[in-house]
Amino acid sequence: MATAYIVDAVRTAGGRRGGRLAGVHPVDLGAAVFDAIADRNDFDTSVIEDVITGCVSQGGQQTMDLGRNAVLASKLPDSIPAVTIDRQCGSSQQAVMFAAQAVMSGTQDVVLASGIESMTRVPMGSVATLFMKEGLGNYKSPRLEEKYPGIMFSQFMGAEMIVKKHGFTKADLDAFALESHRRAKAATEAGLFDREIVPVEIETADGKEWHKADEGIRHDATLESIAGVKLLQEGGTITAATSSQICDGASAVLVVSEQALKDHGLTPRARIHHLSVTAGDPVIMLEEPLFATEKALKKAGLKIGDIDAYEVNEAFAPVPLAWLKYLDADPARLNVHGGAIALGHPLGATGAKLMATLLGVLDARGGKYGLQTMCEGGGQANVTIVERL
């Protein structure tokens, strides 16, 4: 089997809902990261054989094959095809994995994986809500309702179930959230995001400027300020402060074969060591990364101690906390530069975004193996293990 290599991975800085990226069309967010891949890597981009784009809310400005529209808006040649996919929050991680599988199978040599999501312009759940308002029903078919009667597969409820199952307290969640902000602030101030972030030109009241710093980081966060945020549900434990931030953003990862490295004079940053996806309980839903990681490590012939850095998406604080507990993992290696609680979770763009950050962490620490996983709607989880070169 051929080996798949990552040459480059980039992302936009996160924009808060209604914030600095609100004025940028999602197609143009995608074009910005595609342009960066072209500008940063000295090769003829016409050799890119496909673009695979993750996006969750495929409605409004994110319809009509969002990835293809981003190609057409970018400096990439119009001859490059694109497809838009949805594996919920893992959409662009799956895009990276599909790209790697295409290379590993020998059917393609150069594939661009990406993710785009403007949660300001196409709000989360808006597509489903629109159809319900029009009397066209929801995603639950009669057979699905028969199997799961009265269950709406809520990620929020799944997160609260994890809290109870694993014995966490609200104080545990608050402390984790504070650490996410602290780590993100430290990484920003040290310039550790500079290599992965693509500046995006925006319009402000003072004229045009570049958006190049994650907008969601609470640089003045304290345990008291986080603990004081109201509960999302009476009697629960989770607040907006211990949940991922709604975010606008885009990301891209260039995946190539060994032959493409030679043909185009490209230098790899990492190779794909393992990739897998699993599914489990769709009700508790967000717990699947625990079991998916356990299976992935076994299949890859690795132990958790072999992994130098892990990115576990902070959809809600109890998810990475449960992951740490279940795998007996090292908290110092988890989300080293902060996570979605501080940096934002632009849904379909987060997977490739986390890959860019993971490679940055491995570079900063001189690590060898990195692991990425995230919880996804329907009780699914992707796991990708890379080896830094």
Automatic annotation (TrEMBL):
What GO annotations for molecular function exist for this entry?
Answer: acetyl-CoA C-acetyltransferase activity
Protein keywords:
Acyltransferase, Transferase
| NCBIfam families, sorted | AcCoA-C-Actrans, PRK06504.1
Q: Which residues form the Thiolase N-terminal domain?
A: 5-259
Of which family is this protein a member?
Belongs to the thiolase-like superfamily. Thiolase family.
Q: Which residues constitute the catalytic centre?
A: 89, 345, 375
Which leading EC class covers this enzyme? transferase
Q: Which InterPro entries match?
A: Thiolase, Thiolase-like, Thiolase_C, Thiolase_CS, Thiolase_N
What EC numbers are recorded for this enzyme?
2.3.1.16, 2.3.1.9
Task: Give the protein's recorded name.
Answer: Fatty acid oxidation complex subunit beta
Q: Which gene encodes it?
A: fadA6
Mind telling me which CDD domains this protein's record contains?
thiolase
* Domain Thiolase C-terminal residue range list: 267-388
- Which species does the entry assign this protein to? Sphingopyxis granuli
